[in-house]
């Protein structure tokens, strides 16, 4: 008989879980400070809901403009600031989503992610592939369920479980989210309005903004140079990003590419999707499980679990 773990999650999107591996958030490539976030949350989920008017309870109620200069610049560019704000509060516009995307550096795919998230039913599942030399070297399934995080390496028949409290739960979501939904990449656009332009288009069947511009070294020394970005107009979801750098415009130094995505259209075969078969798998302590992952075996950085 199969043993299943139902996914009754308190979280927001499989994409939040991708960073649990070993990859830094995009903020590390930027020369901008991240905005201040609310530091402490109650252990009671009802109290958390009362602490903020946004789905992400760590975000400020109002967009965190830090100076009169930033506020004035935003007022002078209201349409561009609206795109930034939509990306920042993207969680607020999503009830459910599913799809897949990949990202990497210097034109090489490093990771692929397939995700399914249902906010209303509080459930979430992600399949995370690590790519090396053009081939998948590891596949991991990740669940964040009812105050616990499960990770499974099916090929090795291993899984781990880590309890988290409300504070840690939200911190994990926000710290590692910055790829597609609630993407930290709004920082490429913020307070930088003269360096990019946009036009309206359609992508994945939804209205979108196609953004083109140039990043300066003041924004990011690593990503400085031409860039292109596509953002869903109604939800602020990042659909595409290519940063070409200063030396090789044909080979992006950093990219995120959505392969397919469905937003607020429900989850297809939801009852089948939100399950994980762990029968025949051995449960390891978090520390021991971490040693079995590709990043640890390859001598990479420690993960957020170590």
From TrEMBL:
Annotated region (Disordered), positions in chain: 33-57
Q: In terms of domain of life, where is this protein from?
A: Bacteria
Name under which the protein is recorded: Uncharacterized protein
Tell me which species this is from.
Answer: Sediminibacillus albus
